[in-house]
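Interim report, section 4.2 (structural modelling).
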Amino acid sequence: MDTQPGSPPDARPVLEGPDIARVLTRIAHEIVERAKGADDVVLLGIPTRGVFLARRLAAKLEQITERKVPCGSLDITMYRDDLRMHPPRALARTEIPGDGLDGRLVVLVDDVLFSGRTIRAALDALNDIGRPRAVQLAVLVDRGHRELPIRADYVGKNLPTSLRETVKVQLAEEDGRDTVLLGAKAGQ
Amino acid sequence: MQRHLISAADLTRDDAVLILDTAEEMARVADRPIKKLPTLRGRTVVNLFFEDSTRTRISFEAAEKRLSADVINFTAKGSSVSKGESLKDTAQTLEAMGVDAVVIRHGASGAPYRLATSGWIDAHVINAGDGTHQHPTQALLDAFTMRRRLVGRDAGLGKDLGGRRITIVGDVLHSRVARSNVDLLHTLGAEVTLVAPPTLLPVGVESWPCEVSYDLDATLTKSDAVMMLRVQRERMNAAFFPTEREYSRRYGLDGDRMARMPEHAIVMHPGPMVRGMEITAEVADSGRCTVVEQVANGVSIRMAVLYLLLGGNEPAQTRTEEK
Amino acid sequence: MSKILIRGAKVLGGEPQDVLIDGETIAAVGTGLDAEGAEVVEAGGKVLLPGLVDLHTHLREPGREDSETVLTGTRAAASGGYTTVFAMANTFPVADTAGVVEQVWRLGKESGYCDVRPVGAVTVGLEGVKLAELGAMHDSAAGVTVFSDDGKCVHDAVIMRRALEYVKAFDGVVAQHAQEPRLTEGAQMNEGVVSAELGLGGWPAVAEESVIARDVLLAEHVGSRVHICHLSTAGSVEIVRWAKSRGIQVTAEVTPHHLLLTDELVRTYDPVYKVNPPLRTERDVRALREALADGTIDIVATDHAPHPHEDKDCEWAAAAMGMVGLETALSVVQATMVDTGLLDWAGVADRMSAKPALIGRAAGQGRPVSAGEPANLTLVDTEYRGRVDPAGFASRSRNTPYEGRELPGRVTHTWLRGKATLVDGKLT
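Predicted structure of the assembly:
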């Protein structure tokens, strides 16, 4: 996730507020379609911005299906494979909806899919929490450059990038506005 | 945070709040079917106990194992330490074995500080109680318990104990728990009052960031939490107080006294309790007494400390230190 | 006999003069003295003092030769400008018989680096119960005049009274280690703000002061003289001042470390600062300096207490108490008393040579620097500034609290009855 605070001065928006709303609606429909009604779907957002996206998706799913869709969060900090490369990070909340995950279709939600390492950590974390029927992945942006054999089931926008670029997702809940910015990496 | 956790006084307000917040997330792991995290996989932690303390050792061990650390227990009993091997030799043996952290309990005040600063060892040092000096993880778990009960589990996140009135009663003189709590609670903004017979308060207590009173009844009514310290019967023989009966009459917590505490106020005890001495069974077994919670919270706090010291390539950073 | 001319030395810090040593004696003091036939030492403005006298040294032999011997201890003394040390009695076996004190005295003679005057124990085995054979020790070749159970307090009032009375017969003096034992059970450091915080057992000032108060009253009652070892608190100063104003024959010593260091250093938990009596507070340090300046405290004594490395390289509670001091004493006194303007060099000569010799009845020591006196002298480069490096110590032990600290002054030469024991900072 490239979610450093502040946006690079030369960053340009690749998705604006209405685009984001539109792709989330599309993803919600895809989930309903592929999950044949989505009656056993549990959405788990990966903090920080994945949680907000999961909540938005849950609201849309509830509109479509007119049923309550369980939605929670999954903090992957303590499962990261780069823990030893930084000082310890503050932990975020893992909130598993009341009925648990066993036998459910868990859809992990994150803002940007990049190396795939976050998702690997999330799969490890899930493993310690329960045994879902299946796990799927929804992301707002897939910017490529995978380092692990991981792919998303639902993608808001495929965004070809170079490694010298940075993708920054801003969401109203955290940043005051909805946008996805593409810019040059700091110092390059 | 610093590399080691030797004294509660070493923690800034932001350090302490980060530990409490982290412990709150760690506590949720205890509710899961698999109570284990891979975070400290490949790290070796030694529990170096020169003093008997099964409770503290088990608490640390549970915390270490939940974080997947490799755990080595080293107790002085039956080891070469009792045959005259020095702390230094033991430390260097552990260093040679490549340990990442040493959790040390020692009867001599300052032994953990010495271990951390003498150049005998590179590992992180966590003080699990030294003499009558400090017991920082106990103070942290006490503060955690207070924040949960007085502020709220979720409402407390990111918050300190500003304005809460905490009373610590008993043998302050011989208590590392009291010293650590005074330091930490002050850092967290609480107002601390020590209540004890004058014989059980150290000369020099007037320089501590707290109030001192000899009158328990006057203090109780204004307390949000009352922490009872263990009073060892042997102190009686050294003339610290005349009799057990007189001690409990003046400084013990019974049902009548508890009833005069504000309704929301809690009773705490670091354990092991001496029932009938500093606390009656009625109080110890009441719903306002947090002794059992404190034990459970101890594991979460120690997980948080271990994670924040050992989880990365250096100890966790807080805002205050980055300035 | 050989002649030595010390040219241009500030005798007791005064104007530069020449001092001619002929054999064991000072032959002349003046300006432009004839160097004919004499080895010349260019003093170049260094300060010449009478050889220092330490009333309180632990030489450790017999018994703890791993920390110091009479030879290494006297070499350390010569390095520090001393020509006499009083060797404390807490050896193994204890110096409580004529046999032991004679052994120490003989070892001192053999060393040749400074005079060693054994201190005899007051009580058998330092146990505070039964008087040792004080008269026999006095009558022995060692000629003991100072008696002390140092390391332990003669806490029994009756025993103390008897000892004070008994030594009058041969003009002896009892040097009291003032420490009320019950008040200092488990004591690890000065009792106060720092001990409260560090959780180390407190050594309250009153444990020293109460014993001093008792002993000066005992001395008054029986008309004896009493000497107080390593006085360390402001309250003790007040008591001694009061006793002297009453005409009580009390003398007192202060150690260099109590003139410089405070209990704040214990926050490091480094046992190199562990000493008995313990380091006190800033207020005490001020009072001790003032008392040494105004003469309430008579002398500086080192309480040189060597310990092997392993006894200090451990946790605080397990560590031995004591510091080496012979080789840094004069520098500490210069830093705390001379450079602060509290005492001039003549005052230093009085507090570190004349008075201790007088208290210990060390004939031929602590004499004026003038013609006809024994040539016990030390030459000090007072302009020198340097960091303390224990690796260069002559003492067998290295437990100095000053390692790496910058201190002024350096002893370059010491003469013991005309024989050089230290030349240009090197032992002969």
